[in-house]
Design goal:
heterodimer, A: 224 residues, Rna Polymerase Sigma Factor, Chain: A, 8 helices, B: 192 residues, 9 helices, 65% helix
C-alpha cells in the first residue's frame, strides 16, 4: 500500500463531486463533457427513481416520463444544488414534486374520461398486467401479480402523505430524517405517518385476504 | 418501554414501538424477556420484508434493464437537445412583398417636415405674387377703359362694392354688360 492511496468515496461524496463538476462544466460552456459526467448520476440513481415513481404513480409509462423529467430538471437546475445536502435527497425532492404534479394532472384528466375497466370482483385492472414477459412461470406470475395488485390496491387507499412516507421509508430504506428532508415534513410527523400507514396497510391487506376467497367461492357457486 | 405500554398493555410493546424498533434497527430490551412481543416483532418484520420484496419485484418487473437503458438514452437525448441552441426557420424571402430594402438610403423624418414647411411658404408667396399681378392687370384694364380716373381712390384699387355704387364706371366694358344684366344692390335696396 502506498501513501498516496485515497480512501474510496462514499456514494454521497461521489454524487456531490459529480454534481459540482457538472456545475463547473456547464458554467465553462463545456456542455458535452457536462452531459457525460451527468450520466454517472443517472446510472447511479435511475433504478431507485424508477421504483419510487412507479409506486407513486402506479403506472409504468407515467413513471418513466416522471423519471426522465426529474433528471432533465436536475441537470438544468444543478446550479442551485448545495453540496451540504445529499444529491439523492435533492433529486428525490424534484422527483416527488414531479410525481405529485402528474397525479394532480391525472385526477383532472380522469374527470373527463370513462371509468376504468373492472374485473369480475369489481377491481380496477392494470393494463400492464396483461403484457407478456419472459422469466417466471405463468402460475408464479399470477400469484405475484395478485400479491402485487393487492398491495397496490391497499397502497392506493392510503392518504397521499402516508403513502409517500411509507414508500420512501420502507421501499427506499430512508431514515426519518432523510424522508423529512425529501418531503419537507417534520421528522416526528414522518414517524407518525409511517406508523399510521403500516397499521392501515396491515388492516387493508388482511381484509382483502379474507374477502377474496369469499368472493371466489360465491362466484364459483353462482357458476354451478 | 413507554409508560402507556406498561399501564394498558400489561407491559407488552405497542405496535408503534415495534414498528419504530424494527425500522430504526434498535432492538428494545423487552423483546429479550417477552416471548409474545418477540413473536410479534418477528411477524411484523416478516410482513414488512414481504411488502418490500413484493413492491421491489413489481417495480423491477415494470422496469427491466432494457427499459432502463432505453430511458437513459432518452434522458441523454433530451439533455443534448437542451444544450443545442434551437434552430429558427426563417420566413421564406420570396413571400416578403413589402420588405424594406436595407441598402436604400433612408430620409430623416426631420427633413420631410422642413421640406413641407418650405413648400407651404413658397406656396403662400407664390399665391400673393399671383394675386398682386392680377390686381395690377385689372387696374391697367380699368385705366384703359376710363381715362378720366387715372388715379385710383386708394392703393388697393376699386372693390366690387365701389363698382356697385358707381355703375357708370363699368359702362362700355364687358363687365359692364354683365353688370347691366344683373340687379345691383343699390337698386335692390331702393326698390325694397
Amino acid at each position: 500500500m502506498t501513501g498516496t492511496d485515497t480512501p474510496p468515496l462514499s456514494t454521497r461524496e461521489a454524487d456531490a463531486r459529480v454534481a459540482v463538476d457538472v456545475k463547473a462544466l456547464q458554467a465553462a460552456g463545456r456542455t458535452s463533457v457536462a452531459r457525460e459526467r451527468f450520466t454517472e448520476l443517472v446510472t447511479r440513481h435511475q433504478r431507485r427513481a424508477a421504483r419510487i415513481a412507479f409506486h407513486y404513480l402506479r403506472d409504468a409509462a407515467d413513471a418513466d416520463e416522471a423519471v426522465q423529467d426529474a433528471f432533465v430538471k436536475a441537470y438544468l437546475h444543478i446550479g442551485t444544488f448545495r453540496e451540504e445536502l445529499p444529491f439523492e435527497v435533492w433529486f428525490t425532492r424534484i422527483l416527488i414534486n414531479g410525481c405529485l404534479d402528474r397525479l394532480k394532472a391525472r385526477r383532472r384528466r380522469e374527470k373527463w374520461l370513462a371509468p376504468p375497466p373492472l374485473d369480475a370482483q369489481g377491481v380496477e385492472r392494470n393494463p400492464a398486467d396483461y403484457l407478456p414477459s419472459r422469466g417466471p412461470s405463468p402460475e408464479d406470475l399470477v400469484l405475484s401479480g395478485e400479491r402485487h395488485r393487492q398491495l397496490m390496491d391497499a397502497l392506493s387507499q392510503l392518504p397521499e402523505r402516508q403513502r409517500m412516507v411509507f414508500m420512501l421509508s420502507h421501499f427506499d430504506g430512508r431514515s426519518s430524517r432523510e424522508v423529512s428532508a425529501m418531503t419537507g415534513l417534520n421528522e416526528s410527523t414522518v414517524r407518525v405517518h409511517l406508523f399510521r400507514a403500516i397499521r392501515r396497510l396491515r388492516v387493508l391487506l388482511t381484509e382483502n385476504a379474507a374477502a377474496r376467497p369469499r368472493v371466489t367461492r360465491r362466484s364459483n357457486r353462482a357458476a354451478h | 418501554m413507554q409508560l402507556i405500554d406498561a399501564l394498558f398493555r400489561q407491559g407488552h410493546l405497542s405496535e408503534q414501538s415495534l414498528v419504530e424498533a424494527l425500522l430504526a434497527g434498535d432492538r428494545p430490551a423487552h423483546l429479550d424477556r417477552c416471548a409474545t412481543c418477540a413473536e410479534r416483532a418477528i411477524e411484523m418484520g416478516r410482513w414488512l420484508d414481504d411488502v418490500q420484496s413484493i413492491a421491489a419485484e413489481a417495480a423491477d418487473a415494470a422496469f427491466p434493464p432494457e427499459r432502463l437503458a432505453l430511458q437513459q438514452t432518452q434522458i441523454m437525448r433530451r439533455l443534448e437537445q437542451l444544450d443545442q441552441p434551437s434552430r429558427v426557420i426563417a420566413f421564406p424571402s420570396q413571400y416578403r412583398i413589402d420588405a424594406p430594402d436595407r441598402h436604400a438610403r433612408r430620409v430623416a423624418p426631420a427633413w420631410v417636415g422642413v421640406a413641407a414647411a418650405a413648400g407651404l411658404v413658397l406656396g403662400v408667396i407664390g399665391g400673393q405674387i399671383t394675386a398682386r399681378l392680377d390686381t395690377a392687370n385689372t387696374d391697367a384694364a380699368l385705366r384703359a377703359g376710363n381715362p378720366a380716373r387715372t388715379t385710383p381712390a386708394d392703393a388697393t384699387g376699386p372693390s366690387l362694392f365701389d363698382f356697385d355704387l358707381e355703375p357708370t364706371m363699368l359702362r362700355g366694358t364687358p363687365v359692364g354688360t354683365l353688370d347691366e344684366m344683373t340687379p345691383s344692390m343699390v337698386s335692390a335696396r331702393a326698390g325694397g
